[in-house]
């Protein structure tokens, strides 16, 4: 008993040290640069380029898929561990490219907080908005980082206004820039009134030289820029735009920080905000609606599958976020969906694109289970009495193709492959009586997923496919009552989603959808989560 208590106390303490978060941003806002800059502040990685990036900044190359290398992008969502001032920060990678996929969304089901990264010249961009929708649906706390302040951009007050007006998130700046975008002098910490002057270091992404000045000294050095910033800070005070923990944790207000990831300005402040404000892992609600405390026996949910990381081994990995308990490598878990045991002898920690074997892990950490052939996205693994977490929602697909086996003789392999990719959540598989089982419709959030499907069907399942694009871009949930009437309309098709039996109406585009909604208000056309 005493040992069990000791383990529970250890788990609670370790969970309290963890902060598990992801960065949501539009391509080019600076996510890779920020990731490197954050890592520079940790003891784990000491030089830029050690985490994945693009182009020649890519320090660790991944051999997971040729495609990934050819394109120089990361298709996978791994985690980066940053040790900082006694805390463990788990930064989960959200692939943020134009071709992003459901994985990007699913990662958000595995984090406790998001960093919304904005380009100071561009403000809120489409992909950021889509990802923010998922955060909002989960009432997730969001910290905003306005990046690239070393380049010409917009007025800080105008950016705050945009955040409030467009997404209804109340911005509460933690610091305030001195110097307009493009002439970045430093940051005023609103809580202490301290001014940190930034000096760019030659040679790029090293830690910026930061010098703390007293207000009188700052006024002397920065002159009118200081006066202007002080006036704006007074305005914020008058507006009551002050940090408020309760509304932040409820996803209603967002602490905002200004900075520039490339010269590493203000990144230390962001790290301190993550450590100080982002929530540690808390009890996760299970499928019965019961909260499972972090100190309960081991449990976790798979949020991502990755196949063929090593083509010679044909392994299949499941990335699991730990919700409760202590993980010890070698422990035998139970796979909730099948009730079967799952051994964890070869479990690995995920660290950038590298993987290394781990011995123990705690709530908030991500572990990679190898040989996870029977596991699907959303599955729960646990120790002790049974627990199961609710499924991760499927997101609104925007791209659709019809898949057929190139060689009719390979139909069995074709069926098996498509079923497997469906289970892994690589694509959603839709069918209808009209189209038949031999020509299912594959649906995805980003079109890159179809390349992944074609590649894997050919190389892994030995059933090359022909994928013909369909001219739909919107999916809505419907029901049997509306299906016939929808079928009769042009530019609409109703199909059944295999994994959950939902009926989805596919529509050519949102203008056509608006016309249908206007002309047939009685038909059920319900938005799906995000992008719908
Ligand atoms: P992403 O992962 O969000 O797609 O963005 P990434 O970090 O690759 O950054 C996109 C571009 O913006 C890069 O320039 C990067 O150097 C630049 N950038 C990121 N943060 C800052 C910043 O704080 N200040 C300035 N001035 N630039 C920033 P690039 O020329 O497209 O790529 P590269 O050739 O430099 O790698």
TrEMBL record:
<dbReference type="InterPro" id="IPR038467">
    <property type="entry name" value="RF3_dom_3_sf"/>
</dbReference>
<dbReference type="InterPro" id="IPR032090">
    <property type="entry name" value="RF3_C"/>
</dbReference>
<dbReference type="InterPro" id="IPR031157">
    <property type="entry name" value="G_TR_CS"/>
</dbReference>
<dbReference type="InterPro" id="IPR041732">
    <property type="entry name" value="RF3_GTP-bd"/>
</dbReference>
<dbReference type="InterPro" id="IPR053905">
    <property type="entry name" value="EF-G-like_DII"/>
</dbReference>
<keyword id="KW-0342">GTP-binding</keyword>
<dbReference type="InterPro" id="IPR009000">
    <property type="entry name" value="Transl_B-barrel_sf"/>
</dbReference>
<keyword id="KW-0648">Protein biosynthesis</keyword>
<keyword id="KW-0963">Cytoplasm</keyword>
<dbReference type="InterPro" id="IPR004548">
    <property type="entry name" value="PrfC"/>
</dbReference>
<dbReference type="Pfam" id="PF00009">
    <property type="entry name" value="GTP_EFTU"/>
</dbReference>
<feature type="domain" description="Tr-type G">
    <location>
        <begin position="16"/>
        <end position="282"/>
    </location>
</feature>
<keyword id="KW-0547">Nucleotide-binding</keyword>
<dbReference type="InterPro" id="IPR027417">
    <property type="entry name" value="P-loop_NTPase"/>
</dbReference>
<comment type="similarity">
    <text>Belongs to the TRAFAC class translation factor GTPase superfamily. Classic translation factor GTPase family. PrfC subfamily.</text>
</comment>
<comment type="function">
    <text>Increases the formation of ribosomal termination complexes and stimulates activities of RF-1 and RF-2. It binds guanine nucleotides and has strong preference for UGA stop codons. It may interact directly with the ribosome. The stimulation of RF-1 and RF-2 is significantly reduced by GTP and GDP, but not by GMP.</text>
</comment>
<dbReference type="InterPro" id="IPR035647">
    <property type="entry name" value="EFG_III/V"/>
</dbReference>
<dbReference type="Pfam" id="PF22042">
    <property type="entry name" value="EF-G_D2"/>
</dbReference>
<dbReference type="InterPro" id="IPR000795">
    <property type="entry name" value="T_Tr_GTP-bd_dom"/>
</dbReference>
<dbReference type="Pfam" id="PF16658">
    <property type="entry name" value="RF3_C"/>
</dbReference>
<feature type="binding site">
    <location>
        <begin position="93"/>
        <end position="97"/>
    </location>
    <ligand>
        <name>GTP</name>
    </ligand>
</feature>
<dbReference type="InterPro" id="IPR005225">
    <property type="entry name" value="Small_GTP-bd"/>
</dbReference>
<protein>
    <recommendedName>
        <fullName>Peptide chain release factor 3</fullName>
    </recommendedName>
</protein>
